[in-house]
C-alpha cells in the first residue's frame, strides 16, 4: 500500500460528512483514490460518489468492477443517480443501468424518459403515501415499514383509488393525532404540487414562492409519481445562476465546471463572443473615421474619447446588471418595461449630471491651475464634455435597461445582454453623440 494510503485514517474518515470524504479522496492520485473508495462501506460509497465532480465519477465507474458499481448505484437515491447519468456518455449509461436490479432499473429508465430539463428528472419515487380511509395507526405503521427508504418524512401524501394526489399532511400533525382517528379527519384538501412536464426554472419559482422544503410531483392527470426536495432545487439554482453569470460576462455557458472544461472548449466558447464584440468595436473605428476632420481640427477632443465612451459603457453595464437580476428573480416582467424606462431615464439624467459636472470642473480646474492648456475655448470644451456625458450616460442607462426586455420579448435569455455587449453598443453610439454635440457647440470656434 502507498505511504499516502497508509497515513490515511479511513476509520476516522468514515465519521466525516460524505462531502468532506469526497474532498479528501479527490486529492489522491487515480490509483489511490480507487483503492480508498473501495474500502468505504457500501452505503457510504453511494453518498460520497455523488459529491465527486463528473470526471472523477466517470473515472471511478470505469475502474470499479461490475459488482461494486452495481452495489453503489443500487444504494444511490434515484434523483442523484439520474443527475449522474445525464452527464455520462450513452454507452456508459447503458452499461451502468444494466447492472441495476429490475426494480431500480425500471425507476432509472422511467426518470430518464422525461424531458431533459423537466423537474421530473430531479424527483425521487420514494415517499410515504396513504389512503384517506386509513386510521392514524395504520399510517404510522406504513411509515415504519417504508420510511427508511423515503427521501424525506416531512409530509405524508394522501392518494385516492387511482393514486391521484388529494392532500398532503405534515408529519407533525399526524404524530399529534389520536391513533383511532382517520386520515380524512386531518385533511383540508389543500396542497401544492408540481407537474412532471414543468421546467426546472418554473419549479424553482414555486419553491421560492411557497417556501417549501419538499413538493410532490404529479402527472398531467394528477397521479402522484414522486417528490422533489429543496436540496435538489438548490443544486439547480446554483447551476442556473452560474450559467447566467457566465453569459452576462460575455461568453457561452459552460456545460462543465471551469476546472473540468477542456482548454480548446474554453477557448471556443470565449472566442465566439469575443469575435462578435471585436467586430462591433470595429464600428467604433469607423465612427472615428467619419469624424476625422473634426478630430484633426480640434485634437483636444480626442483626449476625452476614452472618458466619454467608458462612462457610457459603465452606466449601461450597471443598468443591464440590475435589470437582468431583477428579471431572473421575477421581480420584473415584460409588462414592467415602461416603469423601468421612466425610472432609468430619470436615473440616467441624474447620473449624467453628476458625471458631466465633474468632467466640466475637471477641465476648468486643470486650465486654471495650469496643469493643461486647453486654449481660449476651455470653457466651451468643458461644456461640450459635460453635455456629452449627460447624453451618453442617459443613452447607456436606457440601452442597458431596455435590451434585456427586448431579448425576452424575442424569446431569448435576457442574460445574453452581457455587460461587454452593452458596452460595445454604447461605445459606437457614444462617439456619434459626443462629436454631434461637439460639432454643435464648437461650430465657428474650434470647428
In summary, what is this structure?
This protein is mainly alpha-helical and 447 residues long.
CATH homologous superfamily classification of the largest domain: SLC41 divalent cation transporters, integral membrane domain
Order of helices and strands: HHHHHHHHHHEHEEHEHEEHHHHHHH
Low confidence ranges: 1-5
Give the mean pLDDT: 81
What multimeric state do the chains show? single chain
Q: Could you say which structural class the secondary elements and strand pairing correspond to?
A: mainly alpha
Q: How many individual domains?
A: 3
Strand content range: 5-15%
Order of strands across the widest beta sheet?
1-2-3
| Tally of helical runs | 20
Assign a percent range to the helix content. 55-70%
Question: Can you tell me the overall shape?
Answer: elongated
Which architecture of the largest domain does the CATH hierarchy give at level 2? Orthogonal Bundle
CATH class (first level) name of the largest domain = Mainly Alpha
Per CATH, what is the topology of the largest domain?
Answer: Tetracycline Repressor, domain 2
Q: What is the CA-CA span between the terminal residues?
A: 83 Å
* Biggest pleated sheet: 3 strands, mixed
The tally of strands reads 6
Amino acid at each position: 500500500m502507498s505511504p499516502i494510503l497508509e497515513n490515511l485514517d479511513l476509520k476516522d474518515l468514515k465519521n466525516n460528512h460524505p462531502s468532506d470524504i469526497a474532498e479528501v479522496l479527490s486529492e489522491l492520485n487515480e490509483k489511490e483514490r480507487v483503492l480508498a473508495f473501495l474500502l468505504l462501506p457500501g452505503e457510504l460509497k453511494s453518498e460520497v460518489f455523488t459529491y465527486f465532480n463528473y470526471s472523477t465519477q466517470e473515472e471511478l465507474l470505469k475502474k470499479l468492477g461490475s459488482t461494486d458499481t452495481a452495489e453503489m448505484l443500487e444504494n444511490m437515491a434515484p434523483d442523484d443517480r439520474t443527475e449522474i447519468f445525464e452527464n455520462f456518455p450513452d454507452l456508459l449509461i447503458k452499461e451502468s443501468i444494466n447492472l441495476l436490479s429490475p426494480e431500480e432499473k425500471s425507476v432509472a429508465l422511467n426518470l430518464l424518459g422525461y424531458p431533459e430539463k423537466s423537474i421530473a428528472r430531479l424527483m425521487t419515487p420514494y415517499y410515504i403515501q396513504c389512503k384517506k380511509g386509513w386510521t392514524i395507526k395504520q399510517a404510522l405503521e406504513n411509515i415504519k415499514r417504508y420510511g427508511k427508504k423515503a427521501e424525506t418524512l416531512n409530509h405524508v401524501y394522501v392518494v385516492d383509488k387511482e393514486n391521484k394526489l388529494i392532500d398532503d399532511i405534515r408529519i407533525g400533525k399526524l404524530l399529534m393525532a389520536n391513533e383511532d382517528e382517520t386520515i380524512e379527519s386531518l385533511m383540508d384538501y389543500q396542497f401544492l404540487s408540481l407537474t412532471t412536464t414543468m421546467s426546472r426554472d418554473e419549479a424553482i419559482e414555486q419553491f421560492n414562492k411557497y417556501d417549501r422544503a419538499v413538493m410532490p410531483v404529479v402527472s398531467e392527470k394528477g397521479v402522484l409519481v414522486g417528490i422533489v426536495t429543496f436540496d435538489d432545487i438548490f443544486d439547480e439554482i446554483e447551476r442556473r445562476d452560474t450559467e447566467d453569470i457566465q453569459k452576462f460576462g460575455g461568453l457561452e455557458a459552460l456545460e462543465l465546471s471551469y476546472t473540468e472544461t477542456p482548454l480548446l472548449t474554453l477557448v471556443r466558447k470565449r472566442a465566439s463572443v469575443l469575435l462578435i464584440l471585436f467586430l462591433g468595436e470595429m464600428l467604433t473605428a469607423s465612427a472615428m473615421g467619419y469624424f476625422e476632420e473634426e478630430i484633426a481640427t480640434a485634437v483636444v477632443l480626442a483626449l476625452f474619447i476614452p472618458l466619454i465612451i467608458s462612462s457610457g459603457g459603465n452606466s449601461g453595464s450597471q443598468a443591464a446588471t440590475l435589470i437582468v437580476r431583477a428579471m431572473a428573480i421575477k421581480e420584473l416582467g415584460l409588462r414592467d418595461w415602461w416603469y423601468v424606462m421612466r425610472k432609468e431615464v430619470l436615473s440616467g439624467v441624474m447620473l449624467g449630471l453628476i458625471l458631466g459636472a465633474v468632467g466640466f470642473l475637471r477641465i476648468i480646474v486643470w486650465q486654471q491651475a495650469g496643469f493643461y492648456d486647453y486654449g481660449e475655448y476651455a470653457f466651451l470644451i468643458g461644456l461640450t464634455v459635460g453635455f456629452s456625458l449627460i447624453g451618453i450616460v442617459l443613452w447607456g442607462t436606457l440601452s442597458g435597461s431596455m435590451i434585456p426586455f427586448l431579448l425576452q420579448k424575442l424569446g431569448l435569455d435576457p442574460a445574453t445582454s452581457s455587460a461587454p455587449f452593452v458596452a460595445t453598443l454604447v461605445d459606437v453610439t457614444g462617439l456619434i453623440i459626443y462629436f454631434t454635440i461637439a460639432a454643435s457647440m464648437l461650430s465657428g470656434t474650434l470647428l
